Amino acid sequence: MRPWQLPLLLLLLAEPPAVRTAPPTCYSRMLGLSREISRDFQRLQATEPPEPCVTYLPRLYLDIHNYCVLAKLRDFVASPQCWHVAPVDALKEKVRKLYTIMNSFCRRDLVFLSDDCSALEYPIPATTVPPDPQG
């Protein structure tokens, strides 16, 4: 092998450079975790046969831009229902994590746009089609 071939061979055998993505921001972490919690809560409610205590858990519709969400998260974690039920314990751990992230690590990155606590009681249906301005 000629001396100039060795670097070329090493270059060809080397792995392609790893794609580096930007690390998640506090905001993206809070948003992603709140969506994950909402999805897990809906799954928990839809489980068949349902765990009897799940019906007594506080509703968990999250909007990280609503100031009342902090109280909602605290209430959910503190609820005595479903102690020692593995899926609920896992969900409560995620809720606790989101509360800690919002209240401690990312406090300065979060902007609350409302403080309407009743808006967190029922989900807002997602619309995929904008309303007709003429109709």
UniProtKB/TrEMBL annotation:
A GO BP entry: positive regulation of transcription by RNA polymerase II
One Pfam family of this chain: CYTL1
This protein's UniProt keywords: Signal
Signal peptide: 1-21
Top-level taxonomy: Eukaryota, Metazoa, Chordata, Craniata, Vertebrata
Protein name: Cytokine-like protein 1
